[in-house]
Amino acid sequence: MRGVIVTADDFGLHARVNEAVVLAHCDGVLSAASLMVGAPAAPGAIACARELPTLAVGLHLVLADGYSVLPHSAIPDLVDREGRFTSSMTFEGLRFFCLPHVRAQAAAEIRAQFEAYAASGLALDHVNTHKHFHLHPTVLALILDIGLDFGLRAMRLPNEMHGSIMLRPWIALAKGRIDRAGIDRNDYVAGLALTGRMDEAAFLDVLRRPPRGVLEIYCHPASVGTGSITPAMHGYRHADELAALRSPAVAAALASSGAMLGGFAAVFGQAARGEARMSA
């Protein structure tokens, strides 16, 4: 295994998520976090990230089941009056593909989220999307086109080793487009099949059978609190995921793997330096 990136998604969604990211990075194996720039606790997440220069932060673009950056008046076909996207990704994906005016609004919102991230002053380590919406060809094309204006250099490929057969054509299409754009990407992910349940046993199982190449393990940690962070996260075991990220056994397994550790920039930077040394 060449490299491992351990990422927390939904950074900025809630103060409990922000607290977990800090704990898991300072006292655990978390190397990266994906920021929701339009989420309620995004200002707090940005403040935390500025105090953690070794945490690799990227943009977690939201086009479903979350809040927009632009107001309803700017993207009336995408969000309700409160600025919230629908959770119906199939319907939205069809509209993105078929309706030019809806696609133009999606492009405006994607650009606005990149601009909001740039305004944070944080380095852009990577880009991914909430619910992996970038597997939709139209969404991916917009991200690649707009993201290059903002220094996009790495994206997540949600390719789980034993993932759904139904996703394979979309993953293959995304892989080809990302590669042709010259964007770095992981080879595999862990965390898709066990969304919200990446506990210590799940981490150790992945690391006992690591794939070749670069692996991204992503999860959704949060500190203990009352109620679900969002209705869609009902049943997520946030505290168990945080415990896994702080587990000595997980840290030992990562260390013994011999893989490069860090965010996308660090892992791919180390890989490039290693290849240069080998060819020298």
TrEMBL record:
GO biological process terms, semicolon-separated: carbohydrate metabolic process
Keywords, in A-Z order: Carbohydrate metabolism, Hydrolase, Magnesium, Metal-binding
GO molecular function, one term: metal ion binding
InterPro entries for the chain: Glyco_hydro/deAcase_b/a-brl, Hopanoid_biosynth-assoc_HpnK, YdjC-like
Statement: the UniProt record of this protein carries the keyword Transit peptide: no
Cofactor: Mg(2+)
NCBIfam families for this protein: HpnK (TIGR03473)
Identification of the protein by name: Hopanoid biosynthesis associated protein HpnK
Source taxonomy: Bacteria, Pseudomonadati, Pseudomonadota, Betaproteobacteria, Burkholderiales
